[in-house]
Structures are given as C-alpha cells and as structure tokens.
C-alpha cells in the first residue's frame, strides 16, 4: 500500500487521495470532505516529504484565519506577531505525529516550509514549490483563484476544504464549492471527495453528526411547521424533534402527485422515530388526524440511506440504493442502473424534489450516480 511520511491510508477515499498526490501528472489536487478525513494530514505529509526528498525546494502553506465570533478573515497585518504561529501550528501538530518537531522547525528556519498570508500573494510567483491552500471554504472564491494564479514553474497546488459543515452557513457558494466546480474538468487537476465513510479521527464522526443536527435544529420554521411541531410536542412529549418541514408546496411546484408524497416531514434525533410513531402507530395517527396531514417521520443519522429513502416519493427505492455519502457540497446517491430512472422520476422531478428537501433541511445539494 502506498504511503506518505509513513502514513498509510485507512479508507478507499484516502487511498484515492494518496494516489492523486503521487501522480506527477496532477499539477493540482483538490480534496474536499468533512473534518477528520485526513485532508490536511495527507496533503501536508506529501508537501514535507517532497521537500525532504529534494523533489521541490519549498513547501508553502497558506491558510485563512477566521475569527469565529465575528466571522471576519484576519491577515498578518491584524496579527503581526501571531499570524505565522497560528497558521503553522495546526500543520505542525499534524506532522509532528510522524516526524520530529525539531526537524520540522529546522525546515521552517531554512525557508523550506513557508507560511504565506492569502491577502498578500498578488504579484508573487511560486516556482519549484508545493503550495497547500488549506481550509479554502473560509476564503472568497476570487481570493482562492488568486492563489491558483501564483503557481510558477515546476509547482504543484494542493487544496483542502469542507464546503458543507465548516463553512459560514450564511454563504451559499464558498471558496470550496466554487473551486470544486472550477477544477472538476480542469486538465491536469484531480478532485477527490471524502465523505463520512472516510472519517478516521477519534471523535470527529460524532462532531460531524452534531454539526448536522445543530444545523437542522436552527432551521427557522414557518407557521404551518410550527403548528405541526406544537401537536407533536403534545402527542409525543418524550420525542426529541429537530424540525418539521412542510413539503406539500415543493411537490406542487414540481407537479408531483400529492398522493405519492407526504405533506410534511418530521425529523427527529437519531433513535427517536419510534417515540413519535408510537408502539402501534397510535401517536402518528393522532398527529395526522389533528393536523389533517399525511406525515413521514425520519431521523438524522450519518447513514443517509434511510434518510433519502424516507423522503423519496417511491416507497421501495431505499431497497435499491447502494450507498449515500457526502460529496463536496452535496449528498451523493449511488443506485443500481436499472433503478436509476425510478429514482430520478419523469423529467427528473423526483430527484429535484429530494434535492429541494435536502436544501431546506441540510443546505446540501444532490448528486446521483449509477452504481
């Protein structure tokens, strides 16, 4: 198995990333995925290994710093004494697990590992270098493009980002989303998507799950949804309900027959569906009777197959889904070839319906691929 700095990939996605990094024809490698999937780990390991083995003269790290409270990006002018330390520390923490910190510090002192402020790259050219643009979701797309334009002779650009969970929720198209789209068909560039199956860092999977849950809980409900929620809280007081989504208008806009879809979707915390439905279905029957609506109850888990199956208009489609995982800013569904048509629906209506529900609940799009 191929490795970098003694680090072996532990998942299929990480194997694809290592192969992309070691493929010298790729001038640009961009990897996107949630926290804990090894994006920075493998890219930084490649950069340091390439410099130590003399393949490149410098490993240049550029990483935006964002104030969590104000959501403002900070520059070296704002933090003249701390900027370099705050950028290099996360990379050093990752790499010091596999090589001596003193050896890494020596590379920094010799100028072989350099920290560059993303605000001041204009006019510069980086020759004979591996450039790591880390956490690109925190950059404006045009600033990320400016770093891309700084590539010089015999240079490679590595990009990491999370266009779903670590971006500002108020920004629709962050630097990671745009860069993924721009590079998807770019010659001598390879895009690698990592998903929840690739999370290997202890605690990261729970963190990703909680981030998604917080996003759903914080969703602002309309009057109809709040009325349904009020009924649910009376009939199922022990259930932890994250949100309610009124989906009937979505189906009507797409001209989907209303008998094929519910009028509302209740989303609960993982494991709480039964508390809303009731032992024999008596609770959901009362909720539907009081609201005069057809309702589906689902729960939020990182195994997205059941989630997609619950909201899709075709009731048996869940049996034909091969897998579902995060891919860039989307949920990607792999489905058997023979069932691709039923999943998409006439003129793609069913897929568009699922995508609109995903956008409302998770702020994510939909990709569908034949398995």
UniProtKB/TrEMBL annotation:
Annotated GO CC locations: cytosol
Pfam families attached to this UniProt entry: KH_2 (PF07650), PhoH (PF02562)
Protein name in UniProt: PhoH family protein
UniProt domain Helicase ATP-binding: residue ranges: 20-181
InterPro entries: AAA+_ATPase, Helicase_ATP-bd, KH_dom_type_2, P-loop_NTPase, PhoH, PhoH2-like
GO molecular function: ATP binding; catalytic activity, acting on DNA; nucleic acid conformation isomerase activity; RNA binding
Entry keywords, A to Z: ATP-binding, Nucleotide-binding, RNA-binding
Gene3D superfamilies in the cross-refs: P-loop containing nucleotide triphosphate hydrolases
């Amino acid at each position: 198995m191929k490795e970098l700095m003694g680090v072996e990939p532990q998942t299929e996605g990480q194997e694809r990333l290592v192969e992309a990094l070691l493929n010298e024809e790729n001038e640009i490698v961009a990897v996107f995925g949630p926290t804990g999937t090894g994006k920075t780990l493998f890219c930084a390991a490649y950069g340091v290994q390439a410099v130590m083995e003399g393949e490149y003269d410098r490993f240049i790290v550029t990483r935006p710093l964002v104030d969590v409270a104000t959501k403002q990006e900070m520059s070296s002018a704002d933090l003249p004494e701390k900027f370099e330390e705050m950028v290099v520390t996360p990379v050093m923490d990752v790499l010091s697990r596999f090589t001596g910190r003193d050896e890494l510090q020596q590379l920094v002192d010799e100028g072989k590992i350099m920290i560059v402020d993303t605000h001041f790259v204009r006019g510069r050219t980086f020759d004979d270098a591996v450039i790591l643009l880390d956490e690109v979701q925190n950059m404006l797309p045009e600033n990320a493009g400016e770093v891309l334009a700084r590539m010089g002779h015999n240079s490679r650009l590595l990009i990491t980002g999370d266009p779903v969970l670590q971006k500002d929720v108020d920004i629709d198209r962050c630097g990671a989303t745009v860069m993924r789209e721009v590079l998807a068909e770019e010659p001598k560039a390879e895009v690698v998507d990592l998903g929840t199956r690739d999370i290997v860092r202890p605690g990261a999977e729970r963190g990703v799950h909680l981030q998604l849950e917080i996003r759903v809980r914080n969703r602002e409900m309309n009057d109809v949804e709040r009325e349904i929620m009020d009924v649910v809280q009376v009939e199922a007081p022990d259930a932890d309900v994250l949100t309610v989504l009124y989906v009937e208008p979505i189906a009507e806009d797409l001209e989907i027959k209303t008998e094929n879809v519910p009028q509302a979707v209740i989303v609960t915390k993982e494991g709480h569906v039964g508390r809303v439905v009731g032992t024999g279905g008596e609770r959901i029957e009362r909720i539907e009777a009081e609201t005069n609506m057809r309702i589906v109850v689902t729960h939020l888990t990182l195994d997205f197959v059941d989630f997609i199956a619950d909201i899709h208009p075709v009731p048996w489609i869940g049996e034909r889904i091969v897998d579902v995982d995060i891919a860039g800013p989307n949920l990607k569904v792999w489905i058997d070839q023979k069932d691709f048509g039923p999943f998409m629906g006439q003129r793609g209506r069913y897929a568009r319906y699922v995508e609109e529900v995903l956008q409302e609940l998770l702020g994510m799009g939909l990709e569908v691929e034949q398995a």
